[in-house]
Amino acid sequence: MGIIAQRHRPRALVTATVSSMLVAFVAGGLMTAIGVGTCGMVGGIVGNVKRRRRGLPSVLTLSLLAGAAYGLFSVGMLLVFSATRDLFFDTVRDTAQGLANLASKQPSLVPMADAFTDATASILRFWYLWIGGTAAFGVVVGTVFAWFVLGAVLDRLSWLPGDDHLDSADDPRPVDPLPVRLDRVGYRYDSSRSNALTDIDFTVDVGEFVAIVGHNGSGKSTLARILAGRAPSYGTVIRPGAAGLGKFGGTAVVLQRPESQILGVLVADDVVWGLPADAHVDVDGLLAEVGLAGMGDRETASLSGGEQQRLAVAAALARRPKLLIADEATAMVDPAGRRELVALLAALPRTHEMAVVLITHHETEADAAQRVIHLAQGRVVGHLPAWHDSTRVVRGAQPVYTEPILRLAGVRHTYLAHTPWSTVALHGIDLTVNRGEGVLIVGGNGSGKSTLAWTMAGLIAPTAGTCELDGKPTTAQVGKVGLAFQHSRLQLQRRTVGAEVASWGGGIGSGQVARALDAVGLDRGLASSAIDELSGGQARRVVLAGLMASRPRLIVLDEPLAGLDPAGRRGIIDLLAGLRASGLTLIVISHDVDGMDAVCNRTVRLDAGRIAIDQPSPIGGVR
């Protein structure tokens, strides 16, 4: 509530408080709703004062006013609900009398019992003063306390960007996004010294499947935001009506991470989430169209990454958009699922009166497009610049790895075990990883790769079986196995790169931070850079630098190449090969295997939570 009050207009706080109170009332009753309302009031005061850059005197003034109002509300509620008030007072009176009777059995406590009885009678006689005053005092004390505690949190979070990259100015015209023409369009972010887009010219019309291809940082996502309705810094976007982002007949966006767009508990609920009650949607037909036939009653949490992306497309189609933008929608999907998803997107303009724009850095995904727009450094170019492949794989005799470091025996894991919604993710995994090995674990979406990664790191306890690092359960050694998440940004919690790496190392000094950055190929000058300014490849390297600073015995990397362009991929592969050459044990979990033979000497394939293949990689060895 404090963050809402600090970053948004008062009506946003009022709306959030009222809606939260309604949910709280349904879930927990009147007292729970009142508690949520109190949070809204206290958080609103602190956040509003922070937003206006004022201090403690403003907090005291507002808290006194709010306390007086809350006191009057408390008294008013007891006046209105007189029967409840009488029952409450009778309970207090009887409790006081019972305590006094107990105390009177001890002569020395009789005066105390009489004083207690008289005080209770006085409080009940002037109850409106006591209750109103106590409520007001509680609000004032609570708000002042929150000013110092919550206010400190808000100060720490003030550097985080609060703008919505898809936000756009209100357009009073009727929703009609196509055809859309960009005439010498450019865009520059407020915090940047250079343009993200420069002099972009092209048109998208109904019935087209257009691919926008470029490397990380080329301006693809910025262009997607312009197409979705964001105003450019200069140039003109011409369309017959409003972009209508999220509205019927308007523009829909499917993002890189489908779980960030899924809101419903059940698949069928998510398709119609947010639509008006009178909207007529053929849910079963849409699910069948995107390859999820018969899954309407499935829980969304049980879907694989590819299935979640298909669900996001179905939910977008439920709004009958004229323009569908898929921004790196294939980045977290396995190769088979990627091909199927691209084929699905390519077919939509032929079966619906719409256009589809696919944002990707995989040129092979653009083969199905009618038109391909290449972006480089924010400009439209004839073709993408080539990237030099510098990896050198050494063939020859492979070292023998005989010293076990990680053992998994009969490992099973069931999500929501002992409930009607239980889902088995791992079925009896037996796996031994030796010191110095590089193990590549592959498999399709939903095969159990990420669950296995979290189990190896000790963040998930197996439902059955054991997972041990050097003979001890990994759950008792959290941090000894370093884990790089699939979404690197979720692991970066500090404001700057240097502070982030230092925190991983337990507060190490600047010299050790510099050496950790050297180890992952990052310039030492990047230590002062803000985390939000990093590219995808840089964010992954910062996570690796933090892991190196924490000195793990083994590192597990979950999808380290997801969302990276060819140059970023090659840089990460080179880095991992170098780390393994230095003696570090690596487990790489990925469905993107191109180039991984330079890092891993062994490949394990998962299928439906079981090990299907465990064999040496086609080309083992290191650089």
From TrEMBL:
It holds the Pfam family ABC_tran. It comes from Antrihabitans cavernicola. This is ABC transporter ATP-binding protein. GO terms for molecular function: ATP binding; ATP hydrolysis activity; ATPase-coupled transmembrane transporter activity. The lineage of its organism: Bacteria, Bacillati, Actinomycetota, Actinomycetes, Mycobacteriales. Residues 180-402, 406-622 form the ABC transporter domain. Signal peptide: none annotated. Belongs to the ABC transporter superfamily. Keywords: ATP-binding, Membrane, Nucleotide-binding, Transmembrane, Transmembrane helix, Transport. CDD domains: ABC_cobalt_CbiO_domain1. InterPro entries: AAA+_ATPase, ABC_transporter-like_ATP-bd, ABC_transporter-like_CS, ABC_transpr_CbiO/EcfA_su, ECF_ABC_transporter_ATP-bd, P-loop_NTPase. Coiled coil: none annotated. GO terms for cellular component: ATP-binding cassette (ABC) transporter complex. The chain crosses the membrane at residues 20-47, 59-81, 127-150.
